[in-house]
UniProtKB/TrEMBL annotation:
<feature type="transmembrane region" description="Helical">
    <location>
        <begin position="20"/>
        <end position="40"/>
    </location>
</feature>
<feature type="transmembrane region" description="Helical">
    <location>
        <begin position="124"/>
        <end position="146"/>
    </location>
</feature>
<keyword id="KW-0812">Transmembrane</keyword>
<protein>
    <submittedName>
        <fullName>Archaeosortase/exosortase family protein</fullName>
    </submittedName>
</protein>
<keyword id="KW-0472">Membrane</keyword>
<keyword id="KW-0378">Hydrolase</keyword>
<feature type="transmembrane region" description="Helical">
    <location>
        <begin position="99"/>
        <end position="117"/>
    </location>
</feature>
<feature type="transmembrane region" description="Helical">
    <location>
        <begin position="217"/>
        <end position="238"/>
    </location>
</feature>
<feature type="transmembrane region" description="Helical">
    <location>
        <begin position="52"/>
        <end position="69"/>
    </location>
</feature>
<feature type="transmembrane region" description="Helical">
    <location>
        <begin position="250"/>
        <end position="271"/>
    </location>
</feature>
<dbReference type="InterPro" id="IPR019127">
    <property type="entry name" value="Exosortase"/>
</dbReference>
<feature type="transmembrane region" description="Helical">
    <location>
        <begin position="188"/>
        <end position="205"/>
    </location>
</feature>
<feature type="transmembrane region" description="Helical">
    <location>
        <begin position="76"/>
        <end position="93"/>
    </location>
</feature>
<dbReference type="InterPro" id="IPR026392">
    <property type="entry name" value="Exo/Archaeosortase_dom"/>
</dbReference>
<keyword id="KW-0645">Protease</keyword>
<dbReference type="GO" id="GO:0006508">
    <property type="term" value="P:proteolysis"/>
</dbReference>
<keyword id="KW-1003">Cell membrane</keyword>
Amino acid sequence: MHFPISMMSMKERLHPAPRWVSVVAGVGFLITLLPVLGWYVRRAMDGSDEPLGVIALVAAVVLGALGVCGGGPNRIQLHPCRLLLGALVLGVIQNSDLVRYPLAIAMLAVAVISLSVSMKRGKAGLVALLVLSMPVMASLDFYAGYPLRVVAAEISHGLLTVAGIEVERAGVMLIDGGRLVGIDPPCAGIRMLWTASFVAAFLAARMRLGWTQTVGLMSLAVVCVVIGNGVRAALVFLPESGRVEWPESLHSAVGLVVHGGVLAALFGLASRLDARGMQDTQVRPLPWSRRAAVVVVAMLLVLGGSRVVGRHPPKAVVEGEVQWPATLDGIPLVPLQLGPMEVRFARSFPGQIARFQWGDGEVIMRRTDRATRMMHPSGDCLRAAGYRVESEPVFLDGDGRWWGASTARRDGRQWDVHERYVGSAGEASLDASAWYWKAVLHPEDGPWTATTVLMPASGSVAVLGKR
């Protein structure tokens, strides 16, 4: 006899599957995900990305375990047949190479988990925590870092103008009396965005908010972060421009105060949403057919997106194809062989890579003719190599060129790292995210060359802009 999907769901609730069936389904699902779990552990431990996602994963597991072990109408129920079907689909996708990226498969796994469990309220927050557990901080900074910093600079420009301080915005920096002032170091806004999103997801799961309320709270978190980041940038402008003097430690204090204000606003908003949600005790979840349609569409988008991202085969590195410069600021560039890590990276890099000795420092050049995620900031590679990397204010060399700046420390040694991305017309970007969006919007400006200069922090005989 054929039962509609809704009737099947009712039968599952009235006659739950034996516990051993759920155990088998869970084990089978984990076995299918072993390659993805291995990738997750490697990404969390190799230093190339900030391991903040582990916090979200632990929170999701703890709250999920409380939901499984708890009683009452909000107890989490597992549908083993759906989980096994999802495991089968994921296995087919992995073996057929339909999706090339582990992150996409991990997101599909989250969709399967969402469809395989049911609870009256709070599932949206758990799903959001699982999404936030992905190691995506580096990618988030690469894609969203520049737009977020542009918005922060525009907000700070407006606030300073209202306060009677005449400034102009130039990209992510402000011009004060003809002088460029950096106000928002890379990653600062992204960390605040992730933290606020995590708090919003945790509150949604803990307060058992519905899907609409959770989406609303997460959206408000983004709005609060954007506004807070602009306020922080306006405050940081004052000492950076020399208009006021305060200790360096106050820079971090300003960030913490603004961050705390954003989180306090989120707690207040979550309480209001929770109070409104409690007035409606009859929670009507989406019918299974509609939920299935939503998830299937999401899967198709992920599959299609991964295919689009990988549709261009990368060019091999061809020696002699690029005429690299012989000197940098009058100091010879002595060609060096690529290291093992660089050789592996070069195999898939859509362009050319070269490494040089430059005095007692080192220069790495990368050239590409397209917008690509692989033109990532050098800090990602340095972190993967065990360095502790910290952002520094932008650097103006003796020739009037601006560079993105950072410091890298390991084994008691410190290196000054300067980086810039230059197009064929000579227009420069100071970070990878800014370069990426310029390359996307103006592909005719290519090819682009990323120059990374690493110098000992003290006693270097090579100085940028000094000939």
